[in-house]
Amino acid sequence: MKILVAVKRVIDYNVQIRVKEDGSGVVTDNVKMSTNPPDDNAIEEAVKIKEAGKASEVVAVSVGDEKAQETVRKALAVGADRGILIKADGVIEPLAVSKILQKVVEKEKPDLVFMGKQAIDDDCNQTGQMLAALLNWPQATFASKIDVKDKSLEVTREIDEGLETIEVNVPAIVTCDLRLNEPRYASLPNIMKAKKKPIEQILASDLGIDTKPRIEQIKVEEPPKRKAGIKVASVEELVQKLKNEAKVI
Ligand code: AMP
C-alpha cells in the first residue's frame, strides 16, 4: 500500500499574525513558517502505518513556492520516503490544489491520500473534500482514529453528537484531526538522512493547472482590540456588574 500525504507550508501557529498596513493580507516576510499542524498528524499516521508493515511507501507532496521544499524536507525527516514539490507562486486556492493533487494521484497511483482536516491560514477545510469529488473516491474527514483493514479503513471521526465510526473502501481520502496521534520530532540523524532523500520538482503549469485565484480578497483587518479588564473589590460587586452591566445573569 502506498500513501500520499499532502503537507502545506503555513505561518507557524505560535506567531502573532500581523495584518499589512494596506489591508491586502498578512505579513509573511521574516515570519516563521511551519507545516500546517494537522498535516504533521497526517504524516505521522502514514509513517506509523508503514512501520506497522501495512504500507510500503509514504510520499509527501506540497504545492507552493521554492520554500515549500522545507515542508517536504521536514516530512522526509520524520519518515516519508520521498517528496514531490509542485511549484506555483502566490495564493493557491483549495480548488487549484485539489486539481493539482488529482494529477499527482493519477501519476503516483497511491492507495490512500492523507491530508490535514484544515489549513490554519485559510481555514478552508475544502481541499480533501474537493479532491475526493474530483477522483470520485470515498472520503473520511476529521479522522481521530484509523484502523487499516484488508481493503478498507475503519475511521473514527469526531462529530457534534460524539464519535462516529465509518468504513471506507481503499482507495480513499482521509483528512486528519489533531487528536489522531502525537507527531514525533525529527532527530538530528534523521534530518541529515532526509537531505539525501529525493524531492521531485514539477511546475504546476506543466500539469496544465491554472492556479490563478478565483476569489477576490477585498480586505483583511485586525480583529477588534479587547478592552482592558477591571478588578472588582468584592463578590457582591462582581455579581452586581454581571447582572446590571454585562447582563449575563
Ligand atoms: P484547506 O482545504 O485549505 O483547509 O486544506 C486542507 C488540507 O489540504 C491541508 O491540511 C493540507 O493537507 C492540504 N493542502 C491544502 N493546501 C495545500 C498545499 N498548498 N500543499 C499541500 N497540501 C495542501
Provide the fold topology.
Elements: E1 2-6, E2 9-11, E3 33-35, H1 37-51, E4 57-64, H2 68-77, E5 82-87, H3 94-108, E6 112-116, H4 127-135, E7 139-148, E8 152-159, E9 162-169, E10 172-176, H5 188-194, E11 199-203, H6 235-244
Adenosine monophosphate binds next to helix 1, strand 4, helix 3, strand 6 and helix 4.
Output the keywords.
27% strand; binds adenosine monophosphate; two-stranded antiparallel ribbon; nine-stranded mixed beta sheet; Rossmann fold; 11 strands; 6 helices; alpha/beta; 249 residues; globular; 27% helix
Would you write up a description of this structure?
The chain contains 6 helices and 11 strands. It is an alpha/beta fold. The protein has a single domain (2-224), classed as HUPs (Rossmann fold). A 9-stranded mixed sheet has the order 9-8-7-10-6-1-4-5-11, with helices on both faces. Strands 2-3 form a two-stranded antiparallel ribbon. Helix 2 (68-77) packs across helix 5 and helix 3 (94-108) crosses helix 4. It is globular, with a radius of gyration of 21 Å. The chain binds adenosine monophosphate. Residues 6-8, 36, 38-39, 62-64, 92, 94, 97, 115-116, 118-119, 122, 124-128 line the site of adenosine monophosphate.
